[in-house]
Specification:
Elements lengths: L1 H10 L6 H26 L15 H34 L2 H16 L7 H34 L7 H32 L4 H24 L6 E3 L4 H13 L3 E7 L10 E6 L2 E7 H6 L2 H16 L2 H23 L3 H6 L8 H11 L1 H28 L3 H15 L7 H7 L5 H8 L10 H5 L12
Parallel strand pairs: 2-4
Antiparallel strand pairs: 1-2, 3-4
Length: 457
């Protein structure tokens, strides 16, 4: 703790150009990611599928996948530039201190004196700032959903549903965000220099609470969970769970088709009571054994301890962030560089600290994706040992075609952005080489494609 305090005093240098440094970090990250995207765009201009997929994917499907990938890449260039301009505008025009001052005026005018203070002021500031950023994100969100995804047949949402989702999101932010943020601030205010220990313990409790309440109270606001009906699929999944001694409590089907044709399956719950959720689109597009094969992969993560390891890494990451925050929380030169000369709000310190931490977060993201891809290979191998090699490979190929997912990737782009190996790598590891029969593009045209996600099966 003494070391952290000494480091904090060392970094608190009057006149130090924190603003220029953080703007430089942001610009460097933007240029780096644009460089990676440009490398990936060259791959998206290739005319032939990778050799590993030549016997599985028709030229027509490959061409559609490449076109979709290029469209997303172009949109990404514009969206990232838009975000960069927003961030620069907020910093250049000192919008943070101006908004803090404005919400302070509201506090004194409309809030009874007994409730005034930094915590209530912070809540007003935070929710106002969140509304502003949400409004600013509307153009890119709307274009992504109702132009880009609509063009390629992925979108199943309506404008009404899209708007309702935003409203529900804001409501949840108030209901759950207010007590969590209040607790965060109260801990920092009352526990002195050792606040980061208590913040970490608070985050652990919140995580366990979220695991419990999310499927019960939050998920039903957006989707409907229905018990999986009796039949071969339910029998197959239950037998797999018994075989692995997985503490299965219930099996659900989620109406993912309500918003898109995206397919997936996952499990959640406490260590002694787990629930499996299967998307209705996955059941619709796959054979029974293929779905069981996918779940063999997912339960492989559990059996191999991947979920526990990732949880441990996440908690360590959270602890070191809070510990580093203790170095910056009293850094007056950081506040002053961004226009805060008389007041030094905790929430502002955390926002600025997060911006200063950007280079380290980039390294963490790279390392976590490397570890995640390793875990994906191990989970695939686990499914192979259970006898689901062909079923899992067949399901992955179907989803790749239905998704119009990127079928190849630049190695540098993939290392930084992908949490999963690309399909040719996974098929090679599964020992699957197909029957040299190409997927029937005409047949696929009659099916709705599946929206690609950042984290697929």
């Amino acid at each position: 703790m003494d070391l952290l305090q000494r480091l904090g005093r060392f970094l608190d240098r009057p006149g130090f150009p924190w603003k220029k440094l953080i703007v430089g970090f942001s610009l460097a990250e933007y240029l780096f990611e644009s460089f990676l995207s440009a490398r990936q765009y060259r791959v998206l201009q290739e005319k032939k599928p990778p050799k590993a997929l030549e016997g599985e994917v028709s030229q027509e499907v490959f061409d559609k996948s490449q076109a979709y990938g290029r469209a997303k890449a172009k949109f990404g260039f514009v969206a990232n530039l838009y975000s960069q301009i927003q961030n620069y505008g907020i910093i250049y025009y000192d919008l943070l201190p101006k908004l803090w001052g404005l919400t302070g005026v509201w506090l004194t005018r409309y809030v009874p004196a007994q409730y005034q203070g930094e915590i209530v002021h912070t809540l007003i500031f935070f929710f106002t700032y969140n509304i502003i950023t949400t409004v600013l994100s509307i153009p890119t969100s709307y274009y992504s959903t109702f132009v880009l995804e609509e063009k390629y047949g992925f979108n199943k949402s309506t404008v009404k549903l899209w708007v309702m989702d935003m409203i529900k999101g804001q409501a949840l932010m108030v209901v759950f965000g207010a007590p969590l943020l209040s607790g965060f601030l109260a801990i920092v205010q009352k526990t002195g220099n050792s606040f980061f220990y208590y913040l970490w313990l608070f985050s652990v409790v919140v995580s366990l609470f979220a695991i419990t309440i999310y499927p019960i109270f939050i998920l039903p606001l957006f989707n409907k969970l229905s018990p999986l009906e009796q039949g071969p699929l339910k029998t197959g999944v239950e037998n797999l769970a018994k075989r692995l001694k997985f503490p299965l409590n219930s099996l659900y089907v989620i109406d993912g088709s309500k918003r898109s044709a995206h397919s997936n399956a996952y499990f959640y719950g406490l260590p002694w009571k787990k629930h499996i959720v299967i998307y209705d689109t996955l059941i619709e597009k796959s054979e029974t054994e293929e779905v069981v094969g996918v779940l063999a992969h997912e339960l492989g993560h559990w059996s191999l301890g991947h979920t526990t390891k990732l949880l441990g890494i996440s908690q360590f990451h959270t602890f070191y962030i809070f510990a580093l925050f203790s170095v910056f929380i009293n850094n007056r030169s950081l506040y002053q560089s961004f226009g805060f000369h008389k007041e030094f709000p905790i929430i502002i310190g955390f926002i600025l600290f997060s911006d200063a931490l950007a280079p380290m977060d980039t390294v963490v993201k790279l390392l976590m994706n490397i570890l995640s891809r390793k875990f994906e290979f191990q989970a695939d191998e686990f499914a192979v040992k259970l006898g689901y090699s062909k079923d899992l490979a067949s399901s992955l190929i179907k989803l790749q075609i239905q998704n119009l997912s990127t079928m190849n990737a630049d190695w540098m782009y993939a290392s930084y952005h992908f949490s999963h190996p690309i399909l040719p790598e996974r098929l090679g590891a599964l020992g699957y080489y197909g029957d040299e029969k190409k997927a029937d593009a005409k047949k696929m045209d009659g099916e709705k494609p599946v929206k690609a996600s950042d984290r697929e099966l």
